[in-house]
Every structure is written in structure tokens, then in C-alpha cells.
């Protein structure tokens, strides 16, 4: 098991390097730093000096890969590639355009993001699985049919509609919670209820339908028939046998997103004014702060790879037949 | 009126896609198993009903893809003097489409700013001077909406009912013609009498579920009839901030949604199919490289990769304005680039599915036999593997569509979607969002965008379900 994890982590390295090369190519090769400077400074203030100053501030005035003006190892380290891409492996992301340290900013903003994402994930999973189990319990009945219709209808609604409609109904018409905002500490709960609720509702349609398919596939298997023949009640069959065996396909889809919860949700956070990583990313995209976007891409990839590893490990926990070699 | 035909990039690709669709139909007609699968789709009421709705959307999108530049009156073009370059300068820089021409009344009747659906007055108050010199703040009357009524408040109900009746009558007439034509063709094909064909249709005993299609067509015609009857004298869905008719905007958004939903899959299809079956069939280092490639692309969170790519592409477009003759061409380039980027980020799922399926197919007897006979690798892939994974491609194509339509709205909201000048559901929502805090609320453009999206995505989802049921061999 330990050897397996180490091997998987080593395997992650080439993937991260690939991610790094792609982002580097996107940000520095497709467009020269001059183009970026011109775009950033706007049409009015573009003078050759302004562009040079913009590049110098960010260290973009150096060569991309090999610095022929420097000596020794500096030839390779005093370059844009080294400073902006390789440093990321040490989680050193440099500074954002407003001069703040990106790594510090990410640490600060992780907490609000998690405060929304974690309850959404846990409660959402619970609600969707329960709903799917209920549909399976009443399978091939009108309840099942209309439940599936409801799921398809719910997944056909834009997530923006859930957010805008929810804000309007709960905050404006019923005036139960503030429309948006955030407060540190326990006070945050007031602001978090609505985004969490909306995220759960928005996810039910697609998730419950998917879980239902998984459960239905399990329920036609032989061990279920045996369990029924044994005289177990339908509820016991569902919870003790079907749910347990359906864990593997469910885990495949679910565990991989757990680490990504840190990244927060772009849309929800920006609608509700939550100072998390999602809104940080959106602000960076809108302000065209390339350093922040690059850092988030890198962190996202790292978390995705961690998620894949966690998925494998979780298999061994729910299915004793699986051994990681 | 004189005009010059304009072929935008997305138009061309859209037509290529349609041509491919027609080729597929010919191919399907010749192949027994495929014909059986599609007949299964057609025999389900849901399949025929949603297909009818999707075809209606396709017709709107198609009309909106025939672009042209109208010629300008010589006087307006160059201040009365004969233009120096008479060929070029005589055409407007505004690119219009056939749909714009059809909807000219909706497009040209601009109000000043917001107005509610069916309203006779502007949403905002304005200071006007009364004849006696005093000033007062009132809601001024609209220039076009309900302008034919003297007192909208009291006359509107009756007027709307009258127009609705006329629209419904026209729709019913059209529907009757369609129903008769359908009965005639059914009677001819089956070699039966009219009454027999009609009764089979009514009782839903035809091979394809024509009754459902006819019902849906009736509903579509009713809605269209009502819109035509009312749209000429009211703003059915109100107007937006700059006074554009929201119904017009919603109809224009359909094309953007269709383009994103279909072209994205089209551009990614060759990569996904080629790489997927190559990785599965060849194995070895080819498999390793391709797997590495899609793991890397998968590792980057989709939205961020799209954001980064769109930001970069925006820089390229902004620094090279000389590439584009008109604003429409620039917006079109951005739309196409968005499709490409979405395609690059979304081909990995299909590629992995195809690889898995090919791994299974590779070990089947007939493939072994082909190899033993000395058939080349390329021929095996083309003749024996490709046709047997096409059902997966077909399912992926229809399943992805609705997700992409929804994604467009979210991406445009984040600011990494289509060009702000392109009319799309996302830009409509984005514009309307700023006005939600106003009192009374400006809800109509939001609701119109969401309603159109809902109908489109719901029909696509239901259609995709039927197609998957018919094509997936595991679902008997």
C-alpha cells in the first residue's frame, strides 16, 4: 500500500510538469509579454516605456528559457520559465498584480471556500443518495416515473436560475437571510445557509438520477435475489446490500472532487460575495491577473491528482477484494 | 434590396455539420441495425416530440446562420457623394441574417429603455413638460409597444384576446394542413385508404410516434402564432436596457446555443475518436502517450483552463484587429475559438470511453480473424473497430449538447464566454442581473432567457435519453 502510494505520487510528477508546460505555453508563448502588457495597460497609456516598466515589475523582461547574459546556473534560473513555472512546485506563486503574496492569500481564502463547499458536499451527497434510494424503493411506479421526470427537469435548469431565483425568493421576498456577504467566525452561518441550500438543490437532479441508475444496476444482481429469498425486508436489502455494493461506482465519481472542494465554487461565491478562492479566481480572471490564474490552475491540478489517489485508497476501504499493489 | 452574402466561420462549420448529418441519414438508411435503432427512437412518443422541438430550434438557428450585408442607400453611405470604392463602401458594416430580415419589425422597433411585457409605458419615469409649462414625472408612452391603443390599461385585455384568437386560428389552419399532408403520406406509403391511415394516426398505432410529433407541432404553431399575432404590436417579453425587444434577443440566442452545443463536439470528435481507438487498439507506448495527454488535460480544472485559454485568445484577437473586417466577424472568431477551447477540454471523456471499448473489441474473434488474414492496421481500425464504437460517439454527441448549452450561460456570466456583442443566453442573463436590485424588479429578460434555455435543454436531455436507450446494447 505504502509503495503504491509512493509510486502514484512519483507518477504525478510528469503530469504536473505537463500541466505546467501547458499553462506556460498558454500564458507566455501564445502571446508575448509585450502583448500582455499592452492589453493590461489599456489603449491610452501604451508607451514603450510603460510596457518596459510593466514587464520589469513582473520580471517578464527576461528571456523565456535560457538567459545568455547570466552566468552558471543563473543561465537557467534567471528566466521567466524558472521563476513563473518551476517555483510553483515549491508552492511559491509570487505576487498578484495588487502586490499581495498569492500563497498567503490562498491560505486566507481557503476557509470561507471550505465553509460552503464542505456542507454542500456532505449534505448534497446525503440528500441525493436518499432521494435516489427512495426512487429505487418505489421503482416502476408512478412515484419513480415522476421522480425521474423531476430530476430531468431539474437538471435542465441553468444553475444561474437557481441562484438568482433563490436569492430573490429567500432573501428578498421572505427576507430570511442576507442576500450576500460574509462574516468571520460563527456569525458566518447566517450568510452560508442560502448558498449551501441552493447548491444542494441545483445538484439534486443530475446526482440523484445518476445514483438511481447505479442502484438499479445493482438491484438486478443475484445476491439481491438471494437476500430477498432469505426473507430480508426490501428496506434491509436496499440499505444493507445494495447501498454497500453501489459504493464503488459512487466513490469513483465522488472522492475525486473532495480535494477540489478547496477551490470553492466560482459562481456561487461571486454571487454571494463570499471571499473564498472561487471569487478570488473570478476577480483574477476579470482583472486579467495572470499570475493568480496560473497559481489556481496549478493548485487545481495538484488537488485533482490527490483526488485520484484518494479514490484508489477509498476502494480498499469499502471493498476488501481490492488490493493496491 | 441589394445585398452581399457573408459566410462566417461558424456558419460554414454549421453547414458542414448539417451536411454530415445528411450523409449520416443516407448511411443509416442503408444499414439495417442502425435503421432499427433509429426506428426505436422514433417509435417513442418522447423521441418524436422532442425531435420536433429540436428541429424547430434548428430551423431558427439555420435561418440565423444565413448572413449577409445589406447595401446602403448611396446617399447614406458617403454623405451624398459617390463612394470612391463603389463596390465595398456601398455595403453596411452591419452583418445581418435571414432571421434578422424575418424579424425586422422586432429588430428595428427600439424603445428608449426597459419596458415590461405588454406594457404601454416605459419602465422608468421621465420628466416631461406639460403644456402649461409645469414639469412632472410620468412613465412616458412607448414608441411602438401598444402604441395603437388610446388607453392601454382598459383596452389591452380585449385587444390581446382578439389578436390571440386570430393567431390561434392561423396556427390551427397551418396545423390542419400539416396533419392532412402527414395522413396523405402515411396512406400512400402503407398503401391504405385515407380513413384507415387517419384512424391509425389518431389511435397512435403508426410505426413512428407521429401522433406525438403532431401534438408537439400543434403546440409549437400555437406559440408561434401567438407570438406573431402579438409581437407586431406589443413587446411580448418586454424590452431590455437599450430598448431592444427581448423576444428578438431570445430568438437570436438560439443560434449561439446551437453553435456551442454542436460545433464543440464536431471539433473535438476527430481527436477523440482517432486517439481513443488508437490507444485502445495499438496499446504500448502509443497508449501511454495518449493516456498521459488526457490525464494532463483532465488534471487542469476545466473552468480555469477555459478561462486561461479565453484570456489568451482575447489578447490575440485584440492585438490583430486587421484580421476582421466587421465586428460580427470578430465576435464570430471568438465564438469559434470558444468552441475549440471547450472541445479541447471536453474530448478526454469520450476518448477514455472509446479506448475502453476498443480494448474489448480488439480481443473479439472477428478482429483476430481479420488480423490473421493479413488486413492492415488502418483497415482494421476503419472497417472493424470504428463502426462498432459509433454508438458511443452518437450517445456522447447528444448527451454533451445540453451540458454545453448550460455551460455557455455560466461562462458568459463569468466573462470568459462569448463576445459581449454576441447575443446569447449568457449575455442576456449577464445584462439583466445588474437590474435585479431595482424596484420594481426587471425580471422579464431573465425569465425569457431561462425559459428558452429550459425548453431547449429539457428537450435535448429527453431526446438524449431516448437515443441512449435505443443505442446502448446494455439496455435491452
TrEMBL record, chain A:
Membrane-topology descriptor: Multi-pass membrane protein
InterPro entries: BPD_transp_1_N, MetI-like, MetI-like_sf
Keyword Membrane: yes
Keyword field contains Oxidoreductase: no
Main location: membrane
Chain ranges passing through the membrane: 9-30, 116-138, 145-169, 189-211, 248-272, 292-318
Any Pfam family the entry gives: BPD_transp_1
Domain ABC transmembrane type-1: 110-314
Compartments where located: Cell membrane
Keywords: Cell membrane, Membrane, Transmembrane, Transmembrane helix, Transport
Gene3D superfamilies: MetI-like
Family from the record: Belongs to the binding-protein-dependent transport system permease family.
Protein name in the entry: ABC transporter permease subunit
From TrEMBL, chain B:
TM stretches of this protein: 6-29, 41-63, 168-187, 208-237, 257-280, 292-315, 335-354, 392-416, 441-464
Topology within the bilayer: Multi-pass membrane protein
Stretches assigned to the ABC transmembrane type-1 domain: 254-464
Entry keywords, A to Z: Cell membrane, Membrane, Peptide transport, Protein transport, Transmembrane, Transmembrane helix, Transport
Family indicated by similarity: Belongs to the binding-protein-dependent transport system permease family.
PANTHER family documented for this protein: OLIGOPEPTIDE TRANSPORT SYSTEM PERMEASE PROTEIN AMID (PTHR43386:SF24), OLIGOPEPTIDE TRANSPORT SYSTEM PERMEASE PROTEIN APPC (PTHR43386)
Protein name: ABC transporter permease subunit
Organism: Aromatoleum anaerobium
Taxonomy of the source species: Bacteria, Pseudomonadati, Pseudomonadota, Betaproteobacteria, Rhodocyclales
